[in-house]
Design brief:
Blueprint: H1 13-45, H2 48-55, H3 57-85, H4 89-124, H5 129-144, H6 146-161, H7 167-189, H8 193-216, H9 234-267, H10 270-306, H11 310-343, H12 350-363, H13 370-382, H14 387-408, H15 415-452
Helix pairs in contact: 1-2, 1-7, 1-8, 1-10, 2-3, 2-5, 2-10, 3-4, 3-5, 3-6, 3-9, 3-10, 4-5, 4-6, 4-9, 5-8, 6-8, 7-8, 9-14, 10-11, 10-12, 10-13, 11-12, 11-13, 12-15, 13-14, 13-15, 14-15
Length: 453
């Protein structure tokens, strides 16, 4: 079991990054497939109202609440990776048990809050009446099973912190296949429609959580989960929250801005909402790659910073930046020219596809600018500097995007004007984070490391 860990503080940097990156990318692919299956099944076998329900307002509400708690889990990943890099077995055990206990509590809170806010949130977002019933059913079932999702995501982050990026992918692949089979069975055989795809998702998450917990219980003696020992160590919890809370706020404000954007999208009708849903799934091809780069940088920087090697962290970040820019340009222009074919996987409605193509061609040309947002924010978080990059992202992405929705979109309420808010905020935030990292972030991290030594 111990042999499956990957020590990113040693060896050839580019080779270690690639070996760690590709399992995460494969996992991100399965995660997107896992999320997209629901929309493919309901879009083709139930109808565009169900498609709009699964990927419209309901998806934004789920993203808001789940994103907050998943942002908190980044704190557990960084703290455990620091202890791993420093070879501190006692700190590794304390941080692992604290993080997983926190995931259990967070999952219970998420369930309660999600069930209470589901209907009011959908009403506030002006969800079209012909999709309201489907949206409410989908939300309530997903939130009812959110504890399992929290445990899986926290557990997979802890495994990555220890250098194991492969087993989370294997478990996600198993659960993805399970989700596909259950989706088709519940919808085509039992005719449960949206209830069926939601139930399939929850059952698959329960399986993934069970596999992750089983693995954590079988780690080596230096860092092995003992269910009886689950408790929150206050010093470790403070460290997890200090890093994770700003990340959670950042994830939530992303979701809030997207949620507010969903309101003018809903006002344009069911065809536009369905197109927005399908486009977001096509769009996710790019985001899964960027997320894989971001998670690779987070773990690489965290381990090497814990080991006290700033020079190696900088070299690894440069390699990831070059790789991210190259891959980003290839994906963005591929989707620009061929995105319409991917859209047809989700719907056969000609008007929905036409609107989706307009959206894709507004978004893709500046995809590559987001590389700087993802990589620099995760590198700084790996140093333990979570608050300042979070504020930059909140102001540059979320606040600016919200201002655009309230001030610019009403002047011309159309799909094109709504889409402009995304590349505009990527460019502004990417530039701001680059300047902060080059002028202040590296120096602050080096100074803190010298003080610790």
């Amino acid at each position: 079991m111990v042999a499956k860990r990957q020590d990113l503080t040693q060896g050839v940097i580019w080779r270690g990054l690639l070996e760690f990156f590709f399992p995460i990318l494969l996992g991100a692919f399965f995660q997107q497939l896992y999320n997209a299956v629901d929309t493919v099944v309901v879009g083709n076998f139930v109808g565009k109202q169900a498609l709009a329900a699964v990927g419209g307002s309901a998806a934004q509400v789920v993203s808001l609440l789940v994103g907050f708690f998943m942002g908190l889990s980044n704190g557990g990943t960084v703290v455990l990776a620091h202890a791993f890099g420093a070879r501190d077995a006692q700190a590794m055990r304390r941080s692992l048990h604290t993080a997983l206990a926190f995931a259990l509590v967070g999952g219970a809170v998420l369930t309660a809050v999600g069930l209470a806010l589901a209907q009011p949130a959908l009403r506030w977002m002006r969800t079209p009446e012909d999709t309201m019933t489907y949206s409410l059913q989908y939300l309530r079932i997903l939130f009812g099973g959110s504890l399992a999702g929290m445990v899986y995501n926290m557990g997979s982050g802890l495994l990555r912190a220890l250098g194991d990026s492969r087993r989370p992918v294997l478990y996600l692949a198993v659960c993805c296949v399970t989700n596909i089979v259950l989706d088709l069975f519940f919808v085509l055989v039992l005719h449960l429609e949206v209830v069926g795809v939601a139930a399939a998702t929850v059952l698959s998450q329960v399986l993934s959580a069970a596999l992750i917990v089983r693995t954590l219980c079988r780690l080596g003696p230096d860092c092995c989960l003992r269910l009886r020992a689950l408790r929150m160590d206050r010093p470790q919890l403070r460290r997890i929250l200090a890093i994770g809370l700003p990340s959670a706020v950042q994830a939530s404000t992303y979701s809030v801005s997207n949620l507010l954007i969903q309101v003018p999208v809903n006002a344009l009708g069911t065809d536009t909402v369905a197109a927005w849903t399908a486009t977001s799934k096509v769009d996710s091809i790019y985001w899964m790659v960027m997320n894989a780069f971001g998670m690779t940088v987070l773990t690489f920087v965290s381990q090497n910073y814990g080991a006290g090697d700033m020079s190696r962290t900088r070299r690894g970040l440069r390699i990831c930046l070059l790789g991210g820019l190259g891959v980003g340009l290839v994906i963005s222009w591929s989707l620009f020219f061929f995105g319409s074919y991917v859209l047809r996987l989700f719907t056969r409605d000609a008007e929905v596809v036409r609107i989706g193509v307009v959206m894709i061609r507004m978004l893709t040309p500046l995809y590559a600018s987001y590389v700087f947002v993802e990589l620099f924010s995760n590198a700084l978080r790996g140093f333990g500097d979570s608050f300042r990059p979070t504020m930059i992202v909140i102001l540059g992405v979320c606040v600016l995007r919200i201002l655009w929705v309230f001030l610019a979109v009403p002047l011309r309420p159309c799909v094109e004007m709504i889409c402009v808010s995304y590349p505009l905020t990527w460019v502004v935030t990417g530039l701001s984070l680059t300047v902060y990292y080059l002028c202040h972030g590296r120096r602050r991290a080096s100074d803190a490391l010298e003080e610790k030594v």
